[in-house]
Amino acid sequence: TFLFILLHFFCSACWAQRHITLPSQAKTTLLEHIIPEANTKHINFSELKENNSHLPSVESIYQTKDHIIWIATVDEGLIEYNGSSFIHYRNTRNDSFSIASNRVNAVYEEDPLTLWVSTITAICKFDRQTKRFSPLLLEGKLVGGDGFLKLPNGKTLCATNEGLCIINKKENNLTAYLNQRIKNIKGAYYLNESIQGLGSLIYDDDHHIWSNIKTENMEGLASFDLFNYEWTFYPQNESNSPASKVLTDKPELMTTYAICADPDGERIWAGGFATGLRCLYKSTGLWKKFIFETKKYPEFLNAINTISTKNSTEIWIGTYTGMVLFNTTTFKTLSFLDAKNAFSNAPPITVNHLYPDHMGNLWIGSDLGIFRLHELNNRFANEKMLSGGDFNITTISHLNIGNFFIANAVKGKEGETNNEVIKYSGTDPKIKYTNPAKDYSWVYPIQKIEFTKNGKLVAFSGNGIMLADTVSKKFKPLPITLLTTNNKIENYLCDFSSVVKWNDSVYYGCRRTTAELGFIEINLNSQIAKQYKLGPLVNSYQPISNSIHFLYKDIYNRLWCCSDDRGLSIFYPTSQLFEHYFTIPDERNSLPSNLIRSVYQSGDSIFWIATNAGLCKSNAVPGTKAKFDLVIPDVECNFIFEDGK
Predict the structure, then answer these.
(1) CB 627 within 8 Å of CB 585
(2) Residue 485 burial (CB < 10 Å; 0-12/13-18/19+)?
(3) Each residue's pLDDT tens digit, 150-206
(4) Number of CB atoms found within 10 A of residue 531's CB
């Protein structure tokens, strides 16, 4: 591992020497500021992982109004993250409804059912209901693109390699602005230059759009006038350009990958490969240049990929070697966060995109995956959302990021229990569904809330499995067909303290029910149930016990079935096979007891098994026989939890 890190850093440094050259002070007329290195500040970041693995290299991040996070990757397509699970959208050969390319640049929400997705080969419309992508054509051809922008008049624009285009929503195609000539700030036009690429888009109060433009011979910051459809280019050496109306010289190039506007709109901040941070004063057209001074990786720190506004005086800057927090008033670096102190003990992390979401999180897309920062993440927020009443919270669940559903067992006037489910999205809580006592002879508290594939809410209680009706705002019994027995499904309903949601199905143990036979799988969409129970002889097609009280899904897509009398079984849903483990006298690597309380898989993929005779651990890799090592003997262990440290 140490050798790999050395080689990685050596290769990265060589790449930088070949492709990145710090601008010479003799070539620029900018007012240059050298920013000294700030004290490194440690901030708690959390990494977003899938199955305990890093996510692919990230190009950009976007959050839709329903709080879903959309991750545009460099070469792995588009990823949808709802706060607990991931959906991948990749280009598939011979599938005309798949995404146009796996190199995705940007995402934008047009309405709740429509996303615009730009890739390196095409601009696509994504129908969230059908999960289909359709390319938008410009004069009958595909064009690659980058950022999107919604104008005050409702038009949606996109940056393409053919210039600035309007998205025609009804026709599902693109229209380019005519001419799009390029001039300098003195009004002189550049000859034989046409747009070959645009970056992200920013709109200001003067009806101008700002972007990085690329032509045959030029690259840098420019503004687009929506009245005359012309670009104004802001090169670094504008003072050396002739004042004629037609320019033939080539201005200094500035490869700009990041732009950001001040809240008051007076300045535009820009950065790119080894340029340091640049600031354009719009009223004068003058630039300021800021070079960050650091002992470690100076060429990487001044290679800027992304800029994001934190507040009225501070901006986050993502570079080739981490992040910089910069004060735009005092021109001081407040903190420098590199890979070693902020993310992981690894070579420099390349920050490709910074995105502040609706919930106060800063999402960091990098070459090592995706991270999340919330500066108040070490505090409890005292919402006081349920104060001043009779509340008995029995369970909390979430549909997606920021949308919480809370089950509350309310006592009635005569002592009866009335269930209600409250939706909380960061504002005032709202009662969405009720389960009144008058509909039942006895109402049990809701123990679990889950959601179907299409977002319908399902509640589990001793009264059964109930589906929330959006019209009456009440819970109605979910009709279940039990395939494997003549008994009624009601015989298998009571204790839902351990429910596992997996794709479209839920699994729960039948201990403490009338049946007490194994565990049940229910498909919430088809409403068909299947029972898994022990027969006369133990074999690999059935669980080890009929008294299953705890279920756990691991990262290998297996289900751990814990019993209170015969050990545990590991279930493979794909093959419908079980592995059985139990106590073997004088066997060192067997379970210490057959009463298994719970199972937990930690971040390093180790399994921890709580029994009434001690805590043990196992690597339990699929395809091998699990061995159990006793860590804490002679203690009754009930529950295991990892705090992240």
Answers:
(1) no
(2) middle
(3) 998 889 999 999 999 999 998 999 999 977 899 988 888 888 888 888 989 999 878
(4) 18
